Amino acid sequence: ENGQIYFMSVVGWCRGYFFDIARNKIVGAKGKSRHNTTLDALNEFILRQAAELKPGRTGAQAAAFGPRYFIDDLKAVTRAEIEAGALCPFPAFGHGLGLNYGRPYVREGELMVLKPGMYIAIEANYADPALGMAEAEVNVEITTDGPCILTKL
Predict the structure, then answer these.
(1) How far is CA 48 from CA 1, 11, 44, 124, 147, in A?
(2) Coil, strand, or helix at residue 47?
(3) Stretch (H or E) spanning 82
(4) Which tens digit of pLDDT belongs to each residue from 14-52?
(5) pLDDT given for residue 16 in this prediction
(6) DSSP 8-state class, residue 44
(7) What is the DSSP letter of 137?
(8) For residues 84 and 116, what is the distance between their CA atoms, to the nearest angstrom?
(9) Which whole-number Å values give the CA distances from 126 to 55, 81, 101, 133, 136, in the listed order?
């Protein structure tokens, strides 16, 4: 319906490797609307979370940004809601990509160290009863110079 969020998630393979992206749009919206706040917050989050993917950090160190952003800065959710999957279908802000899904995860407790050449999806979703479900996701390559977003918004 007009004013609600339409989101599309695309998962596939290219030359034997997974990709996993998601995008959003407000149905019928022309220009900015009050509903764009949710989408803007998700898009800002995934870009800022992607910037945390630096070689030598663990997945847990990179993930520490997520709760600060959603709990402390936006005051959008509680820690219990994040752990229950309010922002992702599993309790992580991202996951490794390659021949399959898996480590390293961008979540608390992930001890795997991020290294150049790793390929990671950063994601978050948010359900608003009035607007519907929104999901944003980008794919990032970790390089010696830091993260490189491969799937621009």
Answers:
(1) 31, 22, 6, 12, 11
(2) helix
(3) helix 79-83
(4) 888 888 889 888 888 676 666 677 788 888 999 999 999
(5) 85
(6) H
(7) E
(8) 31
(9) 29, 11, 21, 6, 9
Pairing label, strands 94-97, 17-26: unpaired
Scanning the structure block, which residue is given the tokens 């490797």?
A: 17
Q: State the average pLDDT over residues 60-88.
A: 86
Through-space distance between the first and last CA atoms of the chain, rounded to whole angstroms: 23
Joined tokens for residue 34: 């009050």
Q: Give the pair of three-digit tokens for residue 99.
A: 């021949």
How far apart are alpha carbons 46 and 70 in whole angstroms?
A: 11
DSSP-derived 3-state class of residue 143 = strand
Kindly report the number of other CB atoms within 10 A of residue 31's CB atom: 6
